Design the sequence.
């Protein structure tokens, strides 16, 4: 059986764009507040997808209407809740903690799939996951794993746990995605995400922390709305469809690696040996997990 290269490509591009979102988040500090950025990116994504999806939505309307609760769930939990928890968490916890805790999302997907559907995970897959996770930890600790022993947990880390649970649940729930065109599948959850962000925006304003975007802020919203929000979510759905939630989720460990490599390229940070080591570990772990899969995952219904 030939390798599902197309799904791999979709997932690598997805994590590259998510890594770029990390850089955008760094560049956004002082130029646009987290909830304004979250609402702006999903509002923009909704406008873009709606501008090209209206005819397709009309064709898919009966199926969309029958599955409207699930589609709203995708937008509220997978898009709005995840980003809301993530952006808020990074105000309280370190970037190292945040990167490592995002690496827990694949194992959360494994656990949920096993508890709900008894989807098997082989010993070789677990080994591959651990190697991939170590690669993410090497990235987050800048090659000094001893620093991980000094990390402390706080309120932000609890929020990161909630963020990981939200995205893991979203990933697993893609097995029930309705049989509609990708344009329709993206449009309704994007709108739901934008609407869900409104109370978060109100909460941020009530705390006096709202920062309206300046020129750089608008550019960051433009990037986040088109790439991490729209294109990457479409590719992620296709990737999960191609190889299953367990195997697709493992690619999330590439996010901190791509984030640091993009920091070198865009922010001018120095390329270190640990960057290369981390990339080899993450990709090697994914390859081992793919080789050791007990059986092909069923494509989501």
Sequence:
């Amino acid at each position: 059986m030939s390798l599902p290269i197309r799904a791999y490509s979709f997932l690598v591009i997805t994590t590259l764009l998510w890594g770029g979102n990390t850089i955008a988040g760094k560049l956004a500090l002082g130029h646009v507040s987290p909830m304004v950025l979250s609402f702006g990116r999903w509002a923009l994504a909704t406008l873009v997808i709606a501008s090209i999806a209206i005819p397709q939505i009309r064709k898919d309307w009966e199926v969309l209407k029958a599955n409207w609760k699930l589609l709203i769930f995708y937008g509220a939990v997978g898009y709005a809740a995840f980003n809301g928890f993530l952006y808020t968490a990074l105000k309280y916890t370190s970037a190292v903690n945040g990167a490592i805790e995002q690496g827990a999302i694949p194992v959360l997907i494994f656990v949920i799939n096993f508890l709900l559907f008894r989807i098997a995970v082989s010993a070789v897959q677990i080994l591959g996951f651990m190697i991939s996770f170590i690669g993410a930890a090497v990235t987050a600790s800048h090659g000094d794993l001893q620093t991980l022993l000094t990390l402390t947990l706080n309120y932000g880390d609890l929020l990161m746990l909630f963020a990981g649970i939200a995205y893991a649940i979203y990933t697993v729930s893609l097995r029930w995605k309705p049989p509609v065109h990708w344009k329709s599948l993206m449009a309704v959850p994007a709108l739901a995400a934008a609407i869900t962000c409104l109370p978060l925006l109100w909460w941020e304003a009530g705390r006096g922390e709202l920062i309206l975007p300046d020129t750089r802020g608008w550019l960051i919203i433009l990037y986040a709305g088109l790439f991490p929000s729209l294109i990457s979510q479409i590719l992620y759905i296709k990737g999960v469809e191609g190889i299953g939630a367990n195997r697709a989720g493992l690619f999330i460990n590439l996010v901190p690696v791509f984030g640091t490599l993009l920091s070198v390229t865009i922010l001018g940070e120095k390329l270190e040996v640990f960057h290369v080591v981390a990339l080899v570990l993450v990709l090697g772990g994914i390859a081992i997990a793919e080789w050791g899969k007990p059986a092909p995952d069923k494509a989501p219904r």
Notes: Residues 297-301 have pLDDT under 50 and may be disordered. The first helix runs from residue 5 to 28. The chain is about 75% helix and 0% strand. Residues 5-291 form one domain.
